[in-house]
Design a protein that fits this description.
The protein contains 16 helices and eight strands. The chain is of the alpha+beta class. It is elongated. Residues 1-39, 338-401 are annotated as: Disordered.
Length: 401
Amino acid sequence: MLPRASSIMRGRFGAGSNRREEKRPRADSFGDDDEGTQPMDMSAVPAVRYHWVPEEFCKVCLSRHFEQARDSPSSYFHTHSQFKLFRGGLDIRPMHLDQQWVSWSYLERFVHVRSLVDMFEGVGWRNALGLKQDWNEAVIRQFYATLEVRAQKEELVWMTGTRKFKATFKDLAAAVGLNYQEMKQGKLVVDFPRLQSGDVQGFYYQDTSVYGPQGGLRRIPKLIYEILRRTIVPSAGANDKAIGWPFYEMITAVMSGEKFNLLDWTVNQMLECKRDVHSPLAFQPYIMALVLRTVGDFRGVSDISHEFYRPFFDQWEYLERKPSPMSCRVPGPHSPEPIPLEVVPPDSPVPLEVVPPSPEAYRGPSFASSSHRAAGTSSSGPSARVARRDRGASHRRGFKG
Protein backbone atom coordinates (compact mmCIF):
# COMPACT_ATOMS: atom_id res chain seq x y z
CA MET A 1 0.00 0.00 0.00
CA LEU A 2 1.40 3.35 -0.97
CA PRO A 3 2.00 5.85 1.83
CA ARG A 4 -0.27 8.85 2.11
CA ALA A 5 1.14 12.31 1.52
CA SER A 6 1.44 12.74 5.27
CA SER A 7 3.68 9.71 5.76
CA ILE A 8 5.73 10.66 2.72
CA MET A 9 6.56 14.08 4.14
CA ARG A 10 5.94 13.81 7.90
CA GLY A 11 9.14 14.60 9.72
CA ARG A 12 11.34 14.06 6.68
CA PHE A 13 11.91 17.64 5.69
CA GLY A 14 12.13 18.83 9.25
CA ALA A 15 14.91 16.34 9.88
CA GLY A 16 16.58 17.31 6.64
CA SER A 17 19.83 16.02 5.28
CA ASN A 18 23.42 16.75 6.15
CA ARG A 19 24.74 16.36 2.62
CA ARG A 20 26.60 19.36 1.26
CA GLU A 21 23.96 21.05 -0.85
CA GLU A 22 26.25 23.82 -2.06
CA LYS A 23 28.28 21.31 -4.09
CA ARG A 24 25.24 19.93 -5.87
CA PRO A 25 24.06 21.36 -9.19
CA ARG A 26 21.02 23.55 -8.81
CA ALA A 27 18.87 21.11 -10.79
CA ASP A 28 19.18 18.24 -13.22
CA SER A 29 17.37 17.93 -16.53
CA PHE A 30 17.14 14.99 -18.87
CA GLY A 31 16.55 15.40 -22.60
CA ASP A 32 18.35 16.25 -25.81
CA ASP A 33 16.41 19.28 -26.98
CA ASP A 34 19.06 21.87 -27.90
CA GLU A 35 16.50 24.46 -28.98
CA GLY A 36 15.30 25.22 -25.50
CA THR A 37 12.34 23.89 -23.57
CA GLN A 38 8.94 24.54 -25.05
CA PRO A 39 5.83 24.19 -22.87
CA MET A 40 3.45 21.31 -23.49
CA ASP A 41 1.11 21.79 -26.43
CA MET A 42 -2.15 20.62 -24.85
CA SER A 43 -3.84 20.36 -28.25
CA ALA A 44 -1.22 17.79 -29.28
CA VAL A 45 -2.01 15.46 -26.38
CA PRO A 46 -4.27 12.58 -27.53
CA ALA A 47 -7.85 13.60 -26.79
CA VAL A 48 -8.99 10.67 -24.68
CA ARG A 49 -11.00 10.87 -21.47
CA TYR A 50 -10.53 8.71 -18.39
CA HIS A 51 -12.81 8.38 -15.41
CA TRP A 52 -11.21 7.66 -12.05
CA VAL A 53 -12.44 6.38 -8.74
CA PRO A 54 -11.09 9.02 -6.29
CA GLU A 55 -9.28 6.45 -4.15
CA GLU A 56 -7.51 4.95 -7.15
CA PHE A 57 -6.68 8.41 -8.51
CA CYS A 58 -5.06 9.30 -5.17
CA LYS A 59 -3.04 6.07 -5.15
CA VAL A 60 -1.71 6.56 -8.66
CA CYS A 61 -0.83 10.19 -7.89
CA LEU A 62 1.63 9.06 -5.24
CA SER A 63 3.26 6.30 -7.31
CA ARG A 64 6.92 6.43 -8.36
CA HIS A 65 6.40 6.87 -12.08
CA PHE A 66 9.91 7.86 -13.07
CA GLU A 67 11.28 4.55 -11.78
CA GLN A 68 9.06 2.72 -14.27
CA ALA A 69 9.61 2.04 -17.96
CA ARG A 70 8.49 4.83 -20.25
CA ASP A 71 5.20 3.80 -21.86
CA SER A 72 3.25 7.03 -22.34
CA PRO A 73 1.38 7.55 -25.62
CA SER A 74 2.50 11.19 -25.44
CA SER A 75 6.05 12.51 -25.20
CA TYR A 76 4.85 14.97 -22.55
CA PHE A 77 4.52 12.21 -19.95
CA HIS A 78 6.81 9.44 -18.76
CA THR A 79 4.21 6.76 -18.04
CA HIS A 80 0.78 5.89 -19.33
CA SER A 81 -0.53 6.47 -15.80
CA GLN A 82 0.68 10.09 -15.84
CA PHE A 83 -1.08 10.54 -19.16
CA LYS A 84 -4.27 9.10 -17.65
CA LEU A 85 -3.97 11.43 -14.64
CA PHE A 86 -3.78 14.37 -17.02
CA ARG A 87 -6.67 13.30 -19.23
CA GLY A 88 -8.58 12.08 -16.22
CA GLY A 89 -9.13 15.52 -14.71
CA LEU A 90 -5.91 17.49 -14.27
CA ASP A 91 -6.28 18.93 -17.77
CA ILE A 92 -9.66 20.51 -16.98
CA ARG A 93 -9.61 21.04 -13.22
CA PRO A 94 -10.16 24.72 -12.39
CA MET A 95 -7.29 26.83 -11.16
CA HIS A 96 -7.43 28.77 -7.92
CA LEU A 97 -8.65 32.23 -8.89
CA ASP A 98 -7.41 34.28 -5.94
CA GLN A 99 -3.73 33.33 -6.12
CA GLN A 100 -2.21 36.77 -5.54
CA TRP A 101 0.93 38.46 -4.27
CA VAL A 102 0.99 40.95 -1.41
CA SER A 103 1.93 44.58 -1.91
CA TRP A 104 3.89 45.26 1.29
CA SER A 105 4.65 48.83 0.24
CA TYR A 106 0.91 49.47 0.23
CA LEU A 107 0.51 48.21 3.81
CA GLU A 108 3.52 50.19 5.00
CA ARG A 109 1.68 53.43 4.18
CA PHE A 110 -0.64 52.89 7.14
CA VAL A 111 1.03 53.54 10.47
CA HIS A 112 -1.35 51.39 12.51
CA VAL A 113 -0.88 48.22 10.47
CA ARG A 114 2.80 48.65 9.67
CA SER A 115 3.64 46.14 12.38
CA LEU A 116 1.97 43.45 10.28
CA VAL A 117 4.77 43.68 7.72
CA ASP A 118 7.31 43.17 10.50
CA MET A 119 5.38 40.11 11.71
CA PHE A 120 5.67 38.40 8.33
CA GLU A 121 9.30 39.47 8.14
CA GLY A 122 9.89 37.92 11.56
CA VAL A 123 8.65 34.47 10.54
CA GLY A 124 10.54 34.64 7.24
CA TRP A 125 7.55 34.73 4.89
CA ARG A 126 7.66 38.29 3.57
CA ASN A 127 9.57 37.56 0.37
CA ALA A 128 7.51 34.48 -0.50
CA LEU A 129 4.17 36.22 -0.01
CA GLY A 130 5.42 39.24 -1.95
CA LEU A 131 6.69 37.13 -4.87
CA LYS A 132 5.25 38.20 -8.23
CA GLN A 133 5.40 35.54 -10.91
CA ASP A 134 3.12 35.17 -13.92
CA TRP A 135 2.57 31.60 -15.11
CA ASN A 136 1.84 29.37 -18.07
CA GLU A 137 -1.27 27.19 -17.71
CA ALA A 138 0.14 24.23 -19.64
CA VAL A 139 3.26 24.21 -17.46
CA ILE A 140 1.19 24.11 -14.27
CA ARG A 141 -1.08 21.31 -15.48
CA GLN A 142 1.83 19.20 -16.70
CA PHE A 143 3.70 19.81 -13.46
CA TYR A 144 0.82 18.44 -11.41
CA ALA A 145 0.32 15.45 -13.72
CA THR A 146 3.98 14.42 -13.45
CA LEU A 147 5.05 15.69 -10.01
CA GLU A 148 6.89 13.19 -7.85
CA VAL A 149 8.29 14.03 -4.41
CA ARG A 150 11.27 12.09 -3.07
CA ALA A 151 11.20 13.22 0.51
CA GLN A 152 14.25 11.34 1.77
CA LYS A 153 16.40 12.99 -0.88
CA GLU A 154 14.52 16.28 -0.60
CA GLU A 155 13.81 16.27 -4.32
CA LEU A 156 10.96 17.13 -6.64
CA VAL A 157 10.82 15.56 -10.11
CA TRP A 158 8.46 16.58 -12.92
CA MET A 159 8.25 17.16 -16.67
CA THR A 160 8.13 20.43 -18.56
CA GLY A 161 7.59 19.99 -22.28
CA THR A 162 9.23 16.73 -23.33
CA ARG A 163 11.98 16.88 -20.71
CA LYS A 164 12.25 15.66 -17.15
CA PHE A 165 13.61 17.96 -14.47
CA LYS A 166 14.75 17.56 -10.91
CA ALA A 167 15.17 20.17 -8.18
CA THR A 168 15.79 20.07 -4.46
CA PHE A 169 13.73 21.55 -1.66
CA LYS A 170 16.56 24.03 -1.29
CA ASP A 171 16.03 25.07 -4.92
CA LEU A 172 12.33 25.59 -4.22
CA ALA A 173 13.16 27.74 -1.20
CA ALA A 174 15.49 29.89 -3.29
CA ALA A 175 12.94 30.19 -6.09
CA VAL A 176 10.16 31.51 -3.86
CA GLY A 177 12.25 33.61 -1.48
CA LEU A 178 12.38 31.41 1.63
CA ASN A 179 15.43 30.81 3.81
CA TYR A 180 16.06 27.06 3.60
CA GLN A 181 17.84 26.74 6.95
CA GLU A 182 15.25 28.83 8.77
CA MET A 183 12.45 26.72 7.34
CA LYS A 184 14.17 23.50 8.46
CA GLN A 185 14.27 24.83 12.00
CA GLY A 186 10.60 25.79 11.99
CA LYS A 187 7.78 23.67 13.34
CA LEU A 188 5.55 21.50 11.18
CA VAL A 189 1.86 22.31 11.12
CA VAL A 190 1.05 19.07 12.96
CA ASP A 191 3.22 20.24 15.86
CA PHE A 192 0.81 23.10 16.53
CA PRO A 193 -1.96 21.94 18.89
CA ARG A 194 -5.37 22.71 17.47
CA LEU A 195 -6.81 25.84 18.96
CA GLN A 196 -10.34 25.60 20.29
CA SER A 197 -12.96 28.33 20.25
CA GLY A 198 -12.08 29.43 23.77
CA ASP A 199 -8.44 29.89 22.78
CA VAL A 200 -9.23 32.40 20.06
CA GLN A 201 -11.79 34.64 21.77
CA GLY A 202 -9.21 37.41 21.75
CA PHE A 203 -9.21 37.41 17.97
CA TYR A 204 -12.82 38.63 18.00
CA TYR A 205 -14.58 41.76 19.22
CA GLN A 206 -16.59 40.89 22.30
CA ASP A 207 -18.96 43.85 21.91
CA THR A 208 -20.21 45.92 19.01
CA SER A 209 -18.38 49.24 18.75
CA VAL A 210 -17.00 51.67 16.20
CA TYR A 211 -14.14 49.22 15.70
CA GLY A 212 -16.29 46.33 14.60
CA PRO A 213 -19.37 44.21 15.31
CA GLN A 214 -19.57 41.71 18.14
CA GLY A 215 -18.06 38.47 16.92
CA GLY A 216 -16.17 40.24 14.14
CA LEU A 217 -12.53 39.40 13.59
CA ARG A 218 -10.10 42.03 14.87
CA ARG A 219 -8.12 43.99 12.31
CA ILE A 220 -4.67 42.38 12.56
CA PRO A 221 -5.93 38.75 12.63
CA LYS A 222 -8.31 39.60 9.79
CA LEU A 223 -5.54 41.07 7.66
CA ILE A 224 -3.37 38.00 8.25
CA TYR A 225 -6.28 35.74 7.35
CA GLU A 226 -7.00 37.62 4.13
CA ILE A 227 -3.33 37.50 3.14
CA LEU A 228 -2.96 33.77 3.88
CA ARG A 229 -6.02 32.68 1.94
CA ARG A 230 -4.79 34.51 -1.16
CA THR A 231 -1.25 33.16 -1.01
CA ILE A 232 -0.07 30.04 0.82
CA VAL A 233 -3.38 28.70 2.20
CA PRO A 234 -5.51 29.00 -0.93
CA SER A 235 -9.18 29.25 -0.07
CA ALA A 236 -12.16 30.85 -1.73
CA GLY A 237 -13.96 31.31 1.57
CA ALA A 238 -14.24 34.89 2.77
CA ASN A 239 -16.30 34.26 5.91
CA ASP A 240 -14.04 35.17 8.82
CA LYS A 241 -16.68 33.89 11.25
CA ALA A 242 -16.23 30.32 10.06
CA ILE A 243 -12.46 29.99 9.88
CA GLY A 244 -11.21 26.41 9.81
CA TRP A 245 -7.95 24.60 10.37
CA PRO A 246 -5.12 25.61 10.00
CA PHE A 247 -5.85 29.35 9.82
CA TYR A 248 -6.00 30.01 13.56
CA GLU A 249 -2.75 28.14 14.12
CA MET A 250 -0.97 30.01 11.34
CA ILE A 251 -2.38 33.38 12.39
CA THR A 252 -1.10 32.69 15.89
CA ALA A 253 2.32 31.72 14.54
CA VAL A 254 2.61 34.97 12.58
CA MET A 255 1.50 37.15 15.50
CA SER A 256 3.67 35.41 18.08
CA GLY A 257 6.77 35.09 15.92
CA GLU A 258 6.64 31.29 16.13
CA LYS A 259 8.82 29.78 13.40
CA PHE A 260 6.71 27.72 10.99
CA ASN A 261 8.08 25.46 8.26
CA LEU A 262 6.42 27.04 5.25
CA LEU A 263 8.52 25.03 2.81
CA ASP A 264 7.29 21.70 4.19
CA TRP A 265 3.74 23.06 4.10
CA THR A 266 4.04 24.12 0.45
CA VAL A 267 5.41 20.78 -0.77
CA ASN A 268 2.76 18.86 1.16
CA GLN A 269 -0.02 21.01 -0.19
CA MET A 270 1.17 20.58 -3.77
CA LEU A 271 0.77 16.83 -3.26
CA GLU A 272 -2.63 17.33 -1.65
CA CYS A 273 -3.70 19.56 -4.52
CA LYS A 274 -2.68 16.89 -7.01
CA ARG A 275 -4.41 13.97 -5.30
CA ASP A 276 -7.65 15.68 -4.23
CA VAL A 277 -9.99 15.51 -7.23
CA HIS A 278 -12.18 18.24 -5.70
CA SER A 279 -9.42 20.82 -5.24
CA PRO A 280 -8.55 23.55 -7.73
CA LEU A 281 -4.95 23.67 -8.89
CA ALA A 282 -3.10 26.21 -6.79
CA PHE A 283 0.39 27.52 -5.97
CA GLN A 284 0.78 28.49 -9.64
CA PRO A 285 3.28 31.34 -9.10
CA TYR A 286 5.49 29.27 -6.80
CA ILE A 287 5.51 26.34 -9.21
CA MET A 288 6.32 28.62 -12.15
CA ALA A 289 9.16 30.26 -10.22
CA LEU A 290 10.67 26.82 -9.54
CA VAL A 291 10.26 25.76 -13.18
CA LEU A 292 11.93 28.91 -14.53
CA ARG A 293 14.81 28.62 -12.07
CA THR A 294 15.32 24.96 -12.95
CA VAL A 295 14.72 24.89 -16.70
CA GLY A 296 16.81 27.91 -17.55
CA ASP A 297 16.12 27.78 -21.30
CA PHE A 298 12.32 27.94 -21.12
CA ARG A 299 10.92 29.21 -24.42
CA GLY A 300 7.28 29.56 -23.46
CA VAL A 301 5.23 32.57 -22.44
CA SER A 302 3.89 33.20 -18.94
CA ASP A 303 0.63 34.64 -20.13
CA ILE A 304 -1.49 34.40 -16.99
CA SER A 305 -0.97 37.47 -14.83
CA HIS A 306 -0.23 37.15 -11.13
CA GLU A 307 -2.41 39.89 -9.67
CA PHE A 308 -1.33 41.86 -6.62
CA TYR A 309 -3.35 42.13 -3.44
CA ARG A 310 -3.82 45.41 -1.61
CA PRO A 311 -5.88 44.62 1.51
CA PHE A 312 -9.07 46.67 1.79
CA PHE A 313 -7.99 48.95 -1.06
CA ASP A 314 -11.43 50.56 -1.16
CA GLN A 315 -11.65 50.90 2.64
CA TRP A 316 -8.73 53.12 3.58
CA GLU A 317 -10.49 54.30 6.71
CA TYR A 318 -10.37 50.70 8.00
CA LEU A 319 -6.57 50.69 7.74
CA GLU A 320 -6.09 54.29 8.88
CA ARG A 321 -8.19 54.23 12.04
CA LYS A 322 -6.50 53.94 15.39
CA PRO A 323 -6.49 50.52 17.02
CA SER A 324 -9.07 49.49 19.56
CA PRO A 325 -8.18 50.63 23.10
CA MET A 326 -8.79 47.07 24.28
CA SER A 327 -5.85 44.74 23.85
CA CYS A 328 -5.83 40.96 23.91
CA ARG A 329 -2.93 38.60 24.15
CA VAL A 330 -1.98 36.24 21.39
CA PRO A 331 -2.97 32.65 22.20
CA GLY A 332 0.03 30.53 23.18
CA PRO A 333 -0.50 27.22 21.36
CA HIS A 334 2.68 25.67 22.74
CA SER A 335 2.37 26.87 26.31
CA PRO A 336 1.88 24.21 28.99
CA GLU A 337 -1.01 26.30 30.33
CA PRO A 338 -3.34 28.64 28.44
CA ILE A 339 -2.39 32.30 28.35
CA PRO A 340 -5.20 34.33 29.93
CA LEU A 341 -6.82 36.72 27.50
CA GLU A 342 -6.96 40.31 28.64
CA VAL A 343 -10.26 42.19 28.72
CA VAL A 344 -12.30 39.05 28.07
CA PRO A 345 -14.65 38.53 31.04
CA PRO A 346 -14.74 34.92 32.31
CA ASP A 347 -18.44 34.66 31.52
CA SER A 348 -18.16 36.25 28.09
CA PRO A 349 -19.91 33.99 25.59
CA VAL A 350 -18.08 32.73 22.54
CA PRO A 351 -19.63 34.14 19.36
CA LEU A 352 -21.96 31.51 17.97
CA GLU A 353 -20.56 31.93 14.48
CA VAL A 354 -17.06 30.82 15.48
CA VAL A 355 -16.43 27.25 14.36
CA PRO A 356 -13.90 25.36 16.53
CA PRO A 357 -11.07 24.73 14.07
CA SER A 358 -10.31 21.17 13.07
CA PRO A 359 -8.90 19.56 9.95
CA GLU A 360 -12.14 17.65 9.46
CA ALA A 361 -14.15 20.88 9.42
CA TYR A 362 -11.92 22.50 6.82
CA ARG A 363 -13.65 21.57 3.59
CA GLY A 364 -13.19 24.64 1.40
CA PRO A 365 -11.73 24.68 -2.10
CA SER A 366 -8.28 24.61 -0.54
CA PHE A 367 -6.81 21.32 0.48
CA ALA A 368 -5.21 21.79 3.89
CA SER A 369 -6.43 18.47 5.18
CA SER A 370 -5.16 14.94 5.37
CA SER A 371 -1.45 15.35 4.77
CA HIS A 372 -0.90 17.02 8.12
CA ARG A 373 -3.50 15.26 10.19
CA ALA A 374 -3.25 11.59 9.31
CA ALA A 375 0.20 11.25 10.81
CA GLY A 376 -0.90 12.30 14.27
CA THR A 377 1.28 14.35 16.55
CA SER A 378 4.19 12.01 17.20
CA SER A 379 7.42 12.88 15.44
CA SER A 380 11.10 12.25 15.44
CA GLY A 381 14.26 13.87 14.20
CA PRO A 382 15.77 17.30 14.84
CA SER A 383 12.64 19.17 13.80
CA ALA A 384 10.52 17.29 16.29
CA ARG A 385 13.07 17.80 19.04
CA VAL A 386 13.05 21.53 18.34
CA ALA A 387 9.25 21.48 18.50
CA ARG A 388 9.26 19.74 21.89
CA ARG A 389 12.04 21.92 23.25
CA ASP A 390 10.28 25.11 22.22
CA ARG A 391 6.90 24.09 23.61
CA GLY A 392 5.90 26.79 26.03
CA ALA A 393 8.26 29.36 24.60
CA SER A 394 5.83 31.37 22.48
CA HIS A 395 5.86 35.15 22.67
CA ARG A 396 3.17 36.49 24.94
CA ARG A 397 2.82 39.94 23.57
CA GLY A 398 -0.48 41.69 23.26
CA PHE A 399 -2.02 43.20 20.18
CA LYS A 400 -4.57 45.81 19.36
CA GLY A 401 -6.85 46.04 16.38
